[in-house]
User: What shape does this take?
Amino acid sequence: MNPELLLFLLLPLAALSGWWIGRRQGRAQREEGGVLPGRYLKGLNYLLNEQPDKAIDLFIEMLDVDSDTVETHLALGSLFRRRGEVDRAIRIHQNLIARPTLSKEQRALALAELGQDYMRAGLLDRAETLFQELVESGPHRHTALCQLRDIYEQEKDWDKAIEVIRRLEQITGKGMRDIVAQYYCEKAEQAHRQGENATALKGIRRALSEDHRCVRASLLEGRIAAETGDWRGAIKAYLRVAEQDPEYLPEVVEPLSRGYRELGRMDEMVSFLRRNLAEHGGISLMLALAERIRQDQGDAVAADFIKEYLKERPSVRGMDRLIELHLASTPEPIREKLQVLKDVTDQLIANKPVYKCQQCGFTGRTLHWHCPGCKSWNTVKPIHGVEGE
Assistant: This one.
């Protein structure tokens, strides 16, 4: 049976049980002329008349808060939050916290649940206050810090996010410097957008000091250098990516090529492409090298180069380029057939994602450093294989 349905079926029973126990202990007044309380019968009537919202509200009012029913209230509140009924969840958890009979652990649990209610409702300032209280109180410090980190990420308050990460490192003993590096990159990106390149470069240096393998920092440094005409600095930053994480090489092919072209050193670009293609592979590297071959030796030689590569590593993008090179020199009857194939490969390329999160599988055509799916940092990378790199 669906656990949510089961909980709703048990709710009237829980309310009745609470009333009966209270009656036996002298905490409730005896209803006139009947064994069952009138409010309970009224709630059942709501259920029978398919008015579950009214029934639920009434049963919650009847369900006294004591040591035996706290778990039921917590479960109900969590259920309402999952169903998107945040107002009800907030009301239940606020009602719990207001009870002086709760133990320290029970109150902490209710505070944590209420904080999650506030986050779901977008009331981040209220949630922050609750989680800060939990951080100081102790029992749920780790959970509260993780929630605070989520809040500060949503608010883009990177300094506070860094403070929280430092505390998490102390509690868990686990290094999280790669995430701190991403926060410094966020600060650098913000400064760059505001035209404060000096501040942005300081952030980049801090990011690399936290995580020397931070590809994002190198890409941003290369972009800033290119925008200011510092092509040597741009090339240096982009070359660093090959050492940090070769999976991101497709991100540097175009800007690196421009840098070498501006300096008149395209022979070095060709050497870079050949070296990394042999070591790491990748359709972006191959196509860039094929274009250089085409410019120097013509379409036929470039087509042969692509064909040989595709024998070892099939690729839709490679096939698309190979067809394109043959179209211009192919007689009309065959050209029409090739054009049909070209249209197919174009559609395949246009509709396929380019990036994939290694953590949750989220895919898209934009590189996200913070995965929109699982909220992990630095887990989205270019897709490899026949339909990717």
Notes: The longest strand covers residues 355-357.
